[in-house]
Specification:
Blueprint lengths: L2 H12 L2 H7 L5 H99 L3 H20 L12 E11 L8 E2 L2 E2 L5 H10 L9 E11 L2
Helix pairs in contact: 3-4
């Protein structure tokens, strides 16, 4: 029997079965038995249809698997090369970011030291009776302290056309017993990594949780 003929016969067998099923009225034992007999015949038809399509489905699956394996083999050197480049560019981006953070930290320390020096000078002037100059120095010291808390060092981030970076964080537990029961109102112990990740994202990685290490990661997003 050809597939075309078998398909036609199966289509004929399924013709109007939904209408037949919907027209059945079960109102007594006899109609109940007839309904169940019809249902049993439909189960047999179901098996027949599945058996008919089993071989074509298996052939299609085998063909798809073979194509997928060939695609994977061809893509492997491409993805390996992209990953190698990404490792280098991400490392460079993080190094630039670290340099910027270190420069900001140094500038803050410098501003704090300047504020401390001015306060010390103001104290000496006040003791010498020059309260007016001392007050001026205290105002300058406050300005330095305010600057230190918000100081940012502008740095030009590396740029390449069609490339952006998605920031994320890796969370690892180093000491479960040191992790607090709750942080910022969120119960995280027993350690709930999903909740910890949510807190890290909400604070842009600034939060510090005992027993947990947070590592910032960057993933290149390339528009081809």
């Amino acid at each position: 029997m050809t597939n075309t003929l078998a398909t036609t016969q199966l289509q004929e067998e399924t013709h109007d079965i939904v209408a037949q099923a919907q027209s059945i009225v079960v109102m007594d034992n006899d109609s109940y038995n007839k309904a169940e007999q019809f249902a049993r015949s439909l189960k047999e038809l179901e098996k027949k249809i599945k058996a008919f399509w089993a071989e074509p489905k298996q052939k299609a699956y085998d063909a798809h698997k073979a194509i997928t394996n060939q695609e994977k083999a061809m893509l492997e050197p491409v993805t390996t090369a992209i990953k190698a480049i990404s490792n280098k560019t991400v490392a460079y981006m993080l190094a630039v970011k670290k340099q910027q953070e270190e420069a900001e930290a140094a500038a803050r320390r410098e501003a704090e030291a300047a504020a401390k020096a001015k306060l010390e000078e103001a104290k000496q002037l006040e003791e010498a009776g020059d309260t007016e100059t001392a007050e001026e120095l205290r105002v300058e010291a406050e300005a330095f302290e305010a600057a230190a808390s918000t100081l940012k060092v502008e740095a030009e981030a590396p740029k390449a056309e069609g490339v952006s970076y998605r920031k994320d964080w890796e969370i690892s537990v180093t000491d479960e017993m040191a992790v607090p029961t709750s942080v910022m109102g969120a119960v995280i112990r027993p350690v709930d990594l999903a909740k910890v990740k949510a807190l890290v994202k909400a604070t842009q990685g600034k939060i510090e949780i005992p027993g947990i290490v947070v590592k910032e990661t960057l993933t290149p997003v390339r528009r081809g």
